[in-house]
Design a protein that fits this description.
Oligomer: single chain
Number of helices: 4
Number of domains: 3
Largest sheet: 3 strands, antiparallel
Distance between the termini: 40 Å
Strand order of the largest sheet: 2-1-3
Shape: globular
Order of helices and strands: HHHHEEE
Length: 168
Amino acid sequence: MRIMTSNNLQDAFAGESQAHMKYTIFSDVAGKEGFPNTARLFKAIAHAELVHARNHLKELGGIQKSPENLQTAIDGETFEVEEMYPAYKAVAELQNEKGAVRSTNYALEAEKIHADMYTQAKKKVAEGTDIEVGVIQICDVCGYTKEGEAPDFCPVCGAPRAKFTAFN
C-alpha cells in the first residue's frame, strides 16, 4: 500500500475509533438522563463507526490470528505502562493538573494488569488452548481489572464494590 493511502487509513481508523468511543459514552449519558431514544441513536451510530474502524484496520493488515493479535495487545499495553503513561503523568504533575494525574495513574495501574492478562492468554493460545478465566471485574471509576469476585473497595481508587461491572 502506498504511504499516503496508508497514512490516510491510519488517520481514519483513529478518527472512527474515537467516534465509536465518544458516541458510546454519549449513549450512556443520554440513557442516564432519561433519553432512551437518543441513547439508542448514539449506540447505533457508535456501532457504525466501529464497522468503519474495523474495515480500515483490516485494509491496513492490522487484524491477524489470535497469537499475533495478543502480541499486538501486549506491545500496546507495555508501551502504555513503560513509556506513555509515566510521561503523561510526569507532565501532569509538573503542571499541577490533579485530574490528569489521577486519570493517567488510573490507566497506568490498569494497563499493568491488562498486559499480564494478555501475556497469560497468549501462552495458552500458543499451546492451542484457551485461557481459563472466570468473571472479569472492571472498576467503572478507574478501570482496575480483576478476575473473580469484585473487592469490597477498589485497591487503586477506593471505589466500592457496587462500582464494578462484571463480564461473564
